[in-house]
């Protein structure tokens, strides 16, 4: 399985984030200009604020998560302690969709396993 590639260049993502952070343009306006959801723009801003330009670069490898971290993040979210975005920020999860997958596994009774590319 390959990682999905962004249709926006790193420079475009940086420009969008800076326009939002500097208060020059609203998140809604940027989202319309770039034909993405507002949550995507907010995610770019969060990643930039956490890791600078490196946070906006496309990952070349899959991020690995332990089963304990996954379970903690899911339980944190399900307990109502934070939103999807807040939970992703707190546990350094790459995206809301990753967390949603874990929540679906957890709530359907499936075992949540560590992320690994290694074969037994």
From TrEMBL:
SUPFAM superfamilies: Homeodomain-like, TrpR-like. It comes from the Bacteria. Residues 12-63, 70-106 form the Insertion element IS150 protein InsJ-like helix-turn-helix domain. One of its GO terms (molecular function) is transposase activity. One of its GO terms (biological process) is DNA transposition. Gene3D superfamilies: Winged helix-like DNA-binding domain superfamily/Winged helix DNA-binding domain. Pfam families: HTH_28. Belongs to the IS150/IS1296 orfA family. This is Insertion element IS150 protein InsJ-like helix-turn-helix domain-containing protein.
């Amino acid at each position: 399985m390959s990682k999905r590639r962004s249709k926006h260049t790193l420079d475009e993502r940086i420009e969008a984030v800076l326009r939002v952070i500097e208060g020059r343009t609203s998140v809604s306006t940027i989202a319309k200009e770039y034909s993405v959801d507002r949550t995507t723009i907010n995610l770019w801003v969060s990643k930039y604020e956490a890791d600078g330009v490196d946070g906006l670069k496309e990952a070349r490898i899959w991020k690995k998560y332990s089963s304990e971290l996954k379970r903690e993040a899911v339980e944190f979210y399900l307990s109502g302690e934070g939103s999807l975005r807040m939970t992703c920020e707190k546990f350094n999860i790459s995206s809301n969709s990753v967390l949603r997958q874990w929540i679906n596994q957890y709530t359907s009774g499936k075992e949540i396993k560590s992320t690994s590319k290694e074969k037994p």
